[in-house]
Write a structure and sequence with these properties.
With about 400 residues, this protein is mainly α. The protein has helices at about 1-25, 30-50, 55-80, 85-90, 105-110, 120-130, 135-140, 145-160, 175-195, 205-220, 225-240, 265-280, 290-300, 310-325, 325-340, 345-350, 360-375, 375-390, 395-405. The chain starts with a helix and ends in a 6-residue tail after the last helix. InterPro entries: DUF6596 (IPR046531), RNA_pol_sigma-70_dom (IPR014284), RNA_pol_sigma70_r2 (IPR007627), RNA_pol_sigma70_r4_t2 (IPR013249), RNA_pol_sigma_r2 (IPR013325), RNA_pol_sigma_r3/r4-like (IPR013324), TPR-like_helical_dom_sf (IPR011990), WH-like_DNA-bd_sf (IPR036388). Belongs to the sigma-70 factor family. ECF subfamily. Keywords: Sigma factor, Transcription, Transcription regulation. Pfam families: DUF6596, Sigma70_r2, Sigma70_r4_2.
């Protein structure tokens, strides 16, 4: 039974986007695609324990989802005038050409990132439809309430239907205008894999990080001169290079400063550094992802954490904050400040973010560490408690719990 549950979970991670993309292409309706895919996975949960896991889970799920969608359209056709949709079930015309993008899931990402939708809505919708993230996971990525995010996604699908936004492959001319939203989606998908937020999931989801890298490589092939595409790919590679060193055998998260750097993937690091150098050589003003990649290049260039060039890291964060003055960037910048100017200066900077990051676990974890370094054990313990309360990642909980237990008693 445990093996079957693991097979369903693995199939959801690996096949959700493929099933949704196939159904969207066939039926032209995001609601139908999502609901039929969800019903197919629910059927798998019921039938696989008795029938066994099929040899090709993806094909089984796609076939089952297609049947679910057909059943729904037939029911609706009885109630309403849905002749056009019903005809679709028996249409043997050849599929439309793939156009500039020949990967089904990547085409769906570009479709969801239609300019008629607000930027944040595009990202949220695509994370749900393509990334397979739950509404709760997406809400945590945006630091908003789950109900509000659910409404945002529902409205986006309704707008696509009401305004008849077609499910269509974007032309080569459409790609540059839509690439910003697509990169935002892939960045968030990668982040969810890098440190999963959902309860009951693996602390690191390699399926998501690998898929984000694969799709970003495809975009890089389409837009080889786009600096932000290269920057995002470099950022992903330099982060993924550290994956095997990020969780200990005990299941506890290992921070950057404590990782075994000999376990890092030198091939990925070399490729990431090459991309960063290539972008620097162009002399073009870097964007957000290029700066983040450069920060990671500094970290992965140091053979020992003590060799880290923190002044360079801070200079890059100063550059980034002018492009992206978000509280999360400011929080990460404070970590560099702590190394250069001391934890007291960094804590003052972190405390200024309290109103905007009150429900963000990393804010409290950062604050807890700074308070620990300053010897304020009681305040640090309270901050660790709040960070633990706000995260569902098992590896992170184990790490934060250990650090809290190591605090000195009393003040």
């Amino acid at each position: 039974m445990t093996g079957v549950r693991e097979a369903v979970t693995r199939a959801h991670h690996e096949e959700w986007a493929r099933v949704v993309a196939a159904l969207t292409r066939r039926f032209g309706d995001l609601d139908i695609a999502e609901e039929a895919a969800a019903e197919a996975f629910a059927t798998a949960v019921e039938r696989w324990p008795a029938d066994g896991v099929p040899p090709n889970p993806g094909a089984w799920l796609t076939t089952t989802a297609n049947r679910k969608a057909i059943d729904r359209l037939r029911r609706e056709n009885k109630r309403d005038d849905k002749q056009r949709e019903a005809q679709m079930l028996y249409d043997d015309t050849p599929p439309e050409p793939t156009g500039a993008v020949d990967d089904e899931r990547l085409r769906l990402i570009f479709t969801c990132c239609h300019p008629a939708l607000a930027p944040e809505t595009r990202v949220a919708l695509t994370l749900r439809m393509v990334g397979g993230l739950t509404v709760g996971e997406i809400a945590r990525a945006f630091l908003v309430q789950e109900t509000a995010m659910g409404q945002r996604i529902t409205r986006a699908k309704a707008k696509i239907k009401a305004t008849r936004i077609p499910y269509r492959v974007p032309s080569a001319q459409d790609l540059p205008a839509r690439v910003s939203g697509v990169l935002s989606v892939l960045f968030l998908v990668f982040n969810e894999g890098y440190l999963a937020t959902g309860p009951g999931t693996d602390p690191i989801r390699h399926d998501l990080t690998a898929e984000a890298i694969r799709l970003t490589r495809l975009i890089r092939a389409l837009l080889p001169d786009n600096g932000e595409v290269a920057g995002l790919l470099a950022l992903m590679l330099l982060t993924e290079a550290r994956r095997t060193a990020r969780v200990a055998a005990t299941g506890e998260l290992v921070t950057l400063g404590e990782q075994d750097r000999g376990a890092w993937d030198t091939t990925l690091i070399a490729e990431g550094h090459r991309l960063v150098r290539e972008r620097l050589a162009t002399g073009a003003t870097p964007g957000r992802y290029q700066i983040l990649a450069a920060i990671n290049a500094v970290h992965t260039s140091a053979r020992d954490v003590r060799d880290t060039d923190w002044s360079q890291v801070l200079a890059l964060y100063d550059q980034l904050v002018r492009l992206d003055p978000s509280p999360i960037v400011a929080l990460n910048r404070a970590v560099a400040i702590a190394e250069l100017d001391g934890p007291d200066v960094a804590l003052a900077a972190v405390d200024r973010l309290a109103d905007r990051l009150a429900d963000y676990h990393a804010y409290h974890a950062t604050r807890a560490d700074l308070l620990r370094r300053l010897g304020h054990s009681q305040q640090s313990r309270a901050a660790y408690d709040r960070a633990i309360e706000l995260t569902a990642n098992t590896a992170e909980i184990a790490y934060l719990t250990r650090r809290r237990e190591q605090l000195a008693p009393g003040m």
